[in-house]
Amino acid sequence: MSSDAAPSSTTPIYKRVLLKLSGEALMGEQQFGVDPLVATRIARDVGAIQALGVETAIVIGGGNIFRGLAASARGMDRATADYMGMLATVINALALQDALEQQNVVTRVVTAIEMRAVAEPFIRRRAIRHLEKGRVVIFAAGTGNPYFTTDTAAALRAMEIKAEVILKGTKVDGIYTADPMLHPEATKYTAISYLQVLERQLTVMDATAISLCMDNKLPIVVFNLRQAGSIGRVVMGEPIGTTVSHQIP
After folding, report:
1. What one-character-per-residue DSSP string does the chain give?
2. Sign of the torsion formed by the C-alpha atoms of 53, 130, 25 and 82
3. What's the pTM?
4. What residues pair up with 169 in beta bridges, in sequence order?
5. Strands of 165-170's sheet in order across
6. Minimal CA–CA distance to 237: which of 21, 41, 24, 52?
7. SS3 state of residue 28
8. Which CATH homologous superfamily contains domain 2-173?
9. Mapping DSSP to helix (H, G, I), strand (E, B) and coil, where does residue 162 land?
10. What are the pLDDT digits (tens) for 77-92?
């Protein structure tokens, strides 16, 4: 029995993952911008799973710099606001690339809006080749289209590169019946189906992203990014966070 259990403690359960980070994840305790210490901690965690042979892609938001939806609500043209938000994600991607390369992790920033001076244009086969060569690939500028969130971009890119799972790093340790920051009595789901997420209107990812994952049977693991080493624990198969899949618990 022990021989059966041993591989799970030493071998990652995923070969290729897509890590979805919000822009706010880079802020730390600041009100806006990028906290270099937080970027370094995330970079160390990503470097640790790369060292295990896990191919890692990252989609990062831009909410710590500019949030298109919020600007649109205040009267700005939605398409213009969304393009500004996409550019904010490029700033975050470059900051994270720098943090990763300071940890000696070879990284490529790939952007859906062409800007050759700072990043590669998105070409699916080239991105996959980078992953196969052991490079971290950071997808910036969302899908390149307004009206689509970085959650949807994460689901789309995960499918395009044939990732086995989306790892959604948040500030809480999973999905709860309500916001645990506002409702201390909220209970945590260890597993939940895509349909339950949609029906209960749980704010995991937006409905478009959840539907895309459901249609393509791509699981999502929601976990606390603020706990050092949590990314590694997820890829090693530890039962932390909440798993969203077709299976109804």
Report:
1. -HHHHHHHHHS-S-SEEEEEE-GGGGTTTSSSS--HHHHHHHHHHHHHHHHTT-EEEEEE--TTT--HHHHHHTTS-HHHHHHHHHHHHHHHHHHHHHHHHHTT--EEEEESS--TTTSEEP-HHHHHHHHHTT-EEEEESTTSSTT--HHHHHHHHHHHTT-SEEEEEESSSSEESS-TTT-TT--EESEEEHHHHHHTT-SSS-HHHHHHHHHTT--EEEEETTSTTHHHHHHTT---SEEEES---
2. negative
3. 0.92
4. 223
5. 120-121, 107-111, 136-140, 55-60, 16-21, 165-170, 220-224, 242-245, 191-193
6. 52
7. coil
8. Acetylglutamate kinase-like (3.40.1160.10)
9. coil
10. 999 999 999 999 999 9
- 31-40, 89-98, 181-190: which is most confident: 89-98
Q: What is the mean pLDDT of residues 35-58?
A: 96
Look-up: residue for tokens 């077709």?
246
223: pLDDT strictly greater than 50:
yes
Residues in CB range of 79: below 8 A, 6 or more apart: 146, 147
- Residue 134's nearest CA partner among 46, 39, 26, 60 is 46
**How is residue 151 written in tokens?**
């959650």
Q: Quickly state the pLDDT bin for 196 (edges 50, 70, 90).
A: very high
Residue 50 near residue 88, CB atoms below 8 Å? no
Which secondary-structure segment (H or E) carries 83? Answer: helix 78-102
3 state SS of 9: helix
